[in-house]
Specification:
By secondary structure, this protein is α/β, with parallel strands linked by helices. The chain is built from 8 helices and 11 strands. Keywords: Cytoplasm, Methyltransferase, S-adenosyl-L-methionine, Transferase, tRNA processing.
């Protein structure tokens, strides 16, 4: 996979040289190219922003440098291949595990982390006519710029690429991973030693009984999701829960409504 990032702070992307992403780059699984937007600013001060039309606080990133930068990146492809353009923005579609999986299947991604009040809207409109443009938000909050979201998205996407993780099954049971546990958070995990500071690993995990272990993990996932993300349980199709799931949820204060979906009475909600 090829990844291009256009930014006014190339040094912010240095973490892409370490950990799993850095190893993937060294192994040739990821071709990451970071470009300084100011290369395409032609005045003495290499200006990339200006005041907004209509007034208001803050500055807006100018279309000229962005247009030249994107044209140069697109022209660097040896063939007709077109990338997916990923625009980090608080007003975009939520970034989810499902979207990470979708983007991991694209051979080429171009990220446009903005600063100030964002990029002149005409840039997005211009390239939406010839590229698959995704405006994406990593959460309901505002950062100083889009570089941190790029780091988040690249790591989430890269770990799904074949060969990046040492064990190809490692992401199978992740929170939000597709499959039977997709609607639940991942439960707690343990490793050696079996006793630490008077705290022991749950007995079931050292029992060797795979059926009991699987059930315990499922129950713990239900408990954690109930405590931290009850909205996931409320949104889940009731058919995704088996009989034991329903018993566990009932013990946690959940009740099924007339439509079969689970909800919690106000008195049952944890403080």
């Amino acid at each position: 996979m090829r990844l291009d990032v256009i930014t006014i702070f190339p040094e912010y992307l240095e973490p892409l040289n370490v950990s799993l992403v850095g190893k993937a780059r060294a192994a040739g699984l990821l071709d990451v190219r970071v470009h300084d937007l100011r290369q395409w600013a032609h005045d003495r001060h290499r200006t990339v922003d200006d005041t907004p039309y209509g007034g208001g606080p803050g500055m807006v990133m100018k279309p000229g440098p962005w247009g030249e930068a994107l044209d140069a990146v697109l022209a660097s492809a040896p063939g007709p291949e077109r990338p997916v353009l990923v625009v980090p923005t608080p007003s975009g579609r939520p970034f989810t595990q499902a979207l990470a999986g979708e983007l991991s299947e694209a051979p080429w991604l171009v990220f446009t982390p903005a600063r100030y009040e964002g990029i002149d809207r005409r840039v997005i409109e211009e390239y939406a006519g010839r590229l698959d443009v995704r405006e994406v938000s990593i959460g309901d909050y505002v950062l100083a710029g889009g570089e941190a979201p790029v780091l988040v998205m690249v790591e989430a996407i890269a770990r799904l690429l074949p060969g990046v993780l040492g064990n190809a099954e490692s992401h199978r049971d992740d929170s939000f991973a597709p499959g039977a546990m997709a609607h639940l958070l991942e439960g707690p995990v343990f490793t050696k030693p079996p006793e630490w500071r008077g705290r022991e690993v749950p007995e079931v995990l050292v029992s060797g009984h795979h059926g009991r272990i699987g059930r315990w993990r499922r129950d713990e996932a239900l408990r954690r999701t109930s405590a931290h993300r009850p909205d996931l349980i409320e949104r889940t199709d009731p058919a995704a829960f088996d009989r034991r799931d329903r018993e566990t949820l009932a013990a946690l204060g959940w009740r099924q409504g007339a439509d079969g979906r689970f909800g919690r009475r106000p008195a049952d909600v944890e403080e």
